[in-house]
Design brief:
seven-stranded mixed beta sheet; disordered N terminus; binds NADPH dihydro-nicotinamide-adenine-dinucleotide phosphate; globular; Rossmann fold; 3 domains; binds magnesium ion; alpha/beta; binds pyruvic acid
Length: 576
């Protein structure tokens, strides 16, 4: 060991003239102190002592010419070098676990390119193959075998105090792909990546959850790689008991948690939303998030169509092709909005027609599933009307919405008929993923002579038509849930009320810029998702305050601009 160097050991050394290097450094120190004192006193960030470099940048642990900016470009080049969307998905999934900052930086800077990989359509393929491409654990798995012991499973989550948002699926209806059992975990993961990228939710405060209650997917039950229980889905009663315990334990383990139900098959989607929505902060994305996003797109489409027809939104006639959780969820949201626009509840209900797999839904048709009864027509009692062309001819809809999972259902004849009865037909093929879309953007443009007002669930490329570029909208609940969730957790909402969902929809509708309006867009550009989410979150917080379901008195004292600034400050940003 060695002693620290000393200039002199003499007791008089303090008074001796120091050597030249010491004089020079003292002079330098005094000059720098005089120059920098005002900055220090103002606490200027860049003059604070630097924090130690992150582990990944410590000297010797990275190559000498390593540079973060170039590395981000390198990662993007690696991504683009992959041919298959699923390979890109696997690459990004790996990147997210190795280097979340870089993953989210790439997402934020390339939203339009990366969203279709981590979300629809590619996430659909990833879910189908989830048990085959599985690499490492991500998220929380709770199975029917854990019944009676769910508390202990939840308590195994490593960052229990930080948990704020969870997306929970039972895998029983993933996108339009049917029962995918525990492979549905991919959808919880994908939605939460969008929460982080789109609304700046802290990555470590998100928990993807997949409930394993069996699967009725026979091919999966026979697949040796399948990651779930080898049994058929449990009975309704057994699932209800499981869900009651799960929801109770979730709020015990994670008291600040907001829960998003995702891709439960339709009967369960309605049942569990109704069962828990007044007890816990929970919403169903397929029913409510979809309702909100479609209402928003329709409001903007109605403005554009009224330039040609002069028709207000509440005079529109909306025909739904598909009467499941999404179709009925959207119908409910539209009906509620029509009443705000001055229609009576009955008048609003009569603006809506549903088609299911048996054709037009009407009361005297026979036994109807519970969720279809409210919108069943009582003004038709003839023989079943099963042909979509006949139904369009009968209803004369101004808007045709597809939430059916039936690829290509909006044939050229359907599109041409819609164009024949409307100067600007509103056509939204909303089924996911893209291969289940009721029609493509190109078909819609060509068969309506470019007059269509279009939004689809999964993205389509823009089209050139007679020298103009036409842009498809993406009517996907991904525009809603990040901002809705952010607003709910910041306000510490005890419930997600209808008014909060509606506020998210109106917030989205009025967030288009002049440029976006001028380009004929129905939804804002996805690159602005953070801005949109902040705007939506403010509206959601205000609605939660009005509904008296918040635990955040300090937010109530802020004006809108202070609240908006706070929401933006709370957003996490990758530190790459
Ligand atoms: N864009 C977005 O943001 C969202 C899109 N979706 C998409 O919507 C689709 C439907 O979801 P969801 O409502 O939960 O699913 P469901 O399975 O509950 O609903 C499908 C509906 O389509 C009907 N249908 C099936 N086949 C036909 C047919 N040949 N002709 C007419 N109708 C038919 C069904 O009829 P029946 O009732 O008789 O079985 C049912 O009413 C999915 O593809 C999903 O990805 C969902 C949520 C959000
Ligand atoms: C987008 C979505 O939630 C769905 O297709 O189910
Ligand atoms: Mg969904």
């Amino acid at each position: 060991m060695f002693d620290p160097p000393s200039f002199s050991s003499s007791p008089l050394s303090a008074f001796a003239i120091p050597p030249f290097p010491v004089l020079l450094s003292s002079f330098f120190f005094i000059v720098m102190t005089i120059i920098l004192t005002p900055y220090w006193s103002k606490g200027v960030q860049r003059l604070k002592p630097a924090s130690p470099p992150p582990e990944k940048l410590r000297h010797g642990l990275v190559p000498s010419a390593f540079n973060e900016g170039v590395h981000a470009e390198r990662a993007l080049a690696q991504l683009r070098g992959k041919d298959q969307p699923l390979e890109k998905y696997i690459f990004l999934s790996r990147l997210k676990s190795d280097d979340p900052d870089l993953f989210y930086k790439l997402c934020l800077e390339n939203m339009a390119e990366i969203t279709p990989i981590i979300y629809t359509p590619t996430v659909g393929d990833a879910c189908i193959k989830f048990s085959h491409i599985y690499r490492r654990p991500e998220g929380l798995w709770v199975s029917i075998k854990d019944k009676g012991n769910i508390k202990n499973v939840l308590n195994n989550w490593p960052r229990i105090d930080e948990a704020r948002i969870s997306v929970v699926t039972d895998g029983s209806r993933i996108l339009g792909l049917g029962d995918l059992g525990v492979n549905g975990m991919g959808i919880s993961i994908g939605k939460l990546s969008l929460y982080v990228a789109g609304a700046g939710i802290l990555p470590q405060s998100t928990i993807p959850i997949c409930l394993d209650l069996g699967t009725n997917n026979q091919a999966f039950l026979e697949d040796p790689f399948y990651l779930g229980l080898r049994q058929k889905r449990v009975s309704e009663q057994e699932m209800d008991e499981f869900m009651d315990e799960f929801m109770h334990e979730m709020t015990q383990a994670f008291p600040k948690m907001m829960i998003q139900f995702e891709d439960f098959s339709t009967d369960k989607a309605f049942r569990y939303l109704e069962r828990y929505r007044r007890q816990y902060p929970v919403f169903n994305d397929d029913i409510q998030g979809t309702g909100a996003v479609v209402l928003s797109g329709l409001m903007n489409a109605a403005k554009l169509s009224s330039a040609a027809s002069g028709m207000p939104l509440n005079a529109h006639r909306i025909l739904f092709f598909g009467a499941g959780s999404a179709g009925v969820g959207v119908a409910t949201q539209l009906q509620s909005f029509f009443t705000l626009q001055g229609l009576s509840v009955e008048e609003a209900r009569r603006r809506i027609w549903l088609i299911d797999s048996q054709g037009l839904v009407y009361e005297s048709r026979g036994r109807l599933a519970e969720h279809k009864k409210y919108f069943a027509r009582n003004d038709y009692s003839g023989p079943p009307m099963t042909d979509i062309l006949d139904i369009i001819d009968y209803v004369k809809p101004t808007a045709l919405l597809g939430l059916s999972t039936i690829s290509g259902a909006f044939t050229p004849e359907v599109l041409q008929l819609m164009a024949a009865i409307n100067p600007r037909p509103i056509i939204f093929p909303l089924s996911n993923p893209v291969r289940l879309s009721e029609c493509s953007f190109n078909d819609a443009v060509v068969n309506t002579n470019g007059t269509v007002l279009f939004a689809s669930g999964s993205p389509f490329p823009e089209q050139e038509f007679v020298g103009r570029v036409l842009y498809p909208g993406q009517g996907n609940n991904m525009y809603i849930f990040p901002g809705l969730g952010l607003g709910a957790i910041l306000s510490r909402a005890t419930q997600v009320t209808d008014s909060m969902v509606e506020a998210s929809s109106l917030g989205l509708a009025n967030s288009l810029t002049e440029e976006e309006h001028a380009a004929g867009l129905l939804y804002p550009r996805v690159e602005r998702i953070r801005e949109i989410s902040a705007h939506i979150a403010v509206q959601v917080i205000r609605a939660a305050q009005k509904a008296n379901v918040t635990h955040s008195p300090e937010l109530a004292k802020m004006d809108d601009s202070q609240l908006h600034a706070l929401v933006k400050r709370k957003m996490w940003n990758p530190s790459f």
